[in-house]
Specification:
single chain, 246 residues, 5-stranded parallel sheet, 9 helices
Length: 246
């Protein structure tokens, strides 16, 4: 069956030259974007319930833009003035650059991993006497806590925001040839919104091993997988699938 319509379970890219735009134009597709999950911040009283006191920490570990936004949101709500001496360990350049929304970049001690926090192992050890805070959501892959534990540093996790299933009820009678998922939470959202979902001729595209495992548990037929050596991106995997249909 030909592919004409695709629903991507993520926000629409904010650039006109995204790979999805090129895929859409090249194959004359309708590609819609709709986040199946979204982030909500927790209240200050919930942070206090976790017995988190921002005053106790010298260094903040930032893994995403959400972690940046919600740390500074709660700092303001809790009337905590972030000291100029605070250090920031950032997962990537994109996170470090986003940090400029809240601090004067050139006047702060900011350390950036080339690809991930794991690249900063030597820097973490340099400041092993610091007290580190990891702002996170309620969902956190174990790789980061395991890494921090292996360093034997003094660190705490603070759940400052949570992942919530989005309301998709308006899509109940809308059919797409391909549904694209990037996380187990997206799969969970599909079945929470549509408990009676039947795949039939809908093709399922999944990115990443944990998403593949979630789709398997949900007994979905997986038609498109990424990343692979041949198709490292989702758009490349979708295009390969479309070409093989011809």
């Amino acid at each position: 069956m030909k592919v004409k319509t695709i629903l991507v379970s993520q926000p629409e890219p904010n650039t006109e030259n995204s790979p999805y735009a090129r895929l859409k134009e090249k194959h004359n597709l309708t590609i819609d974007f709709r986040p199946f999950i979204h982030v909500e911040g927790v209240a200050a009283k919930e942070v206090r319930h976790q017995k988190i006191d921002f005053n106790e920490f010298d260094t903040i570990i930032l893994t995403s833009r959400n972690s940046v936004d919600h740390f500074f949101r709660l700092a303001e709500e809790m009337r905590f003035k972030v000291p100029d001496t605070t250090k920031y360990f950032c997962q990537s350049e994109a996170v470090a650059y986003y940090l400029q929304k809240y601090v004067v970049y050139r006047k702060r001690k900011i350390y950036v991993g080339e690809k991930s926090l794991l690249d900063l192992e030597a820097t973490f050890k340099k400041f092993k006497n610091d007290r580190f805070l990891l702002p996170s959501s309620d969902i956190l892959k174990p790789v980061i806590p395991n890494f921090l534990d292996s360093l034997e540093i003094n660190w705490r996790r603070a759940q400052l925001y949570k992942t919530v299933v989005s309301d998709l009820s308006d899509l109940r009678d809308v059919y797409y040839d391909i549904l694209v998922f990037f996380s187990p939470s997206g799969i969970e959202s599909l079945f929470k919104n549509f408990p009676d979902f039947e795949q039939n001729n809908t093709r399922i595209a999944v990115y990443g091993n944990t998403t593949i495992e979630a789709a398997d548990r949900a007994k979905l037929r997986i038609d498109i997988k990424a990343p692979t050596k041949e198709t490292p991106s989702m758009t490349m995997a979708i295009e390969k699938y479309i070409k093989e249909l011809v």
